Amino acid sequence: MNKIWMKKMTILCCMFLLAGAAGSWQIAAAQTAAEDKHFITVADQASLAEIKESELVLEKSRNKDVRAFAKRMVHDHRMLIAQMKPFAAKYKVPPPVLLSTGQDAQYSTLTGLSGKEFDKAFIEDAVKDHHEALALFDAELAATTDADLKATVTAGRAVVADHSQMAGTLAQKMGM
C-alpha cells in the first residue's frame, strides 16, 4: 500500500509542478506580449511625431543641412511605421493618428519659432528624442521573445542610431 501511495503522491507532485511551470510560462508570455504591444504603440507614436516635425521643418527651415536631415527623417520614419505594421496588426495596436500631449506641446513650440531658433529647437529635440528612442529599442530587444519582431527591432534600432548620430553631428555643426 505504501508503494502505491508513494507513486500517486509522486505523480500528483509532478502534475502540480508541471501545472505551475505552465502557468508561469503563460504569465511570462502575456507580460512579454504586453511589453511588445507597448513598444509598438510608443515606437509608432514617436515615428508619427518625427514625421510631423520634419514636415514642419521642410515648410519653415532655410538651413540646407537641417532640411536634408528632415527629408531623411520623413522617409525613414515612414519606413519604420511600414515595417511595424504587420506587428501592429498581430498585436492589435491601432495606428496613431494624433500626437501625444507631450509631442503636441513640442510641435506647438516649434510652430512658434523661426530661423535659427527654429532649427536649433528642432535639432535639440531630435537629439533628445533619438536618445530616448534608442533606450526604448534596447529595452525591447532585451525583453521580446518574438523572433520576427526582434529582427525588425534590430533593423529599426540601426536606423534610430543613425538618426541619433546625424542629429548629434548637426548639433555640433550648429554650435550647440
What does the model show?
- With 176 residues, the protein is an all-alpha fold.
- The protein has one domain: Ferritin (Up-down Bundle), CATH 1.20.1260.10.
- Helices cover 87% and strands 0% of the residues.
- The chain has 5 helices and no strands.
- α1 (2-60) runs antiparallel to α4 (115-143).
- The termini are far apart.
- The model is unreliable at 12-19 and 21-30 (pLDDT under 50).
Key attributes of the depicted protein:
mainly alpha; 176 residues; elongated; single chain; Ferritin; 5 helices
Pick out the low-confidence regions. Answer: 12-19, 21-30
The CATH topology annotation reads as Ferritin
Note the gap between the termini: 83 Å
Number of separate structural domains: 1
Inertia-based shape: elongated
Question: Summarize this, please?
Answer:
The protein is mostly helical and 176 residues long. The chain has helices at 2-60, 64-90, 101-111, 115-143, 147-173.
Secondary-structure blueprint:
Elements: H1 2-60, H2 64-90, H3 101-111, H4 115-143, H5 147-173
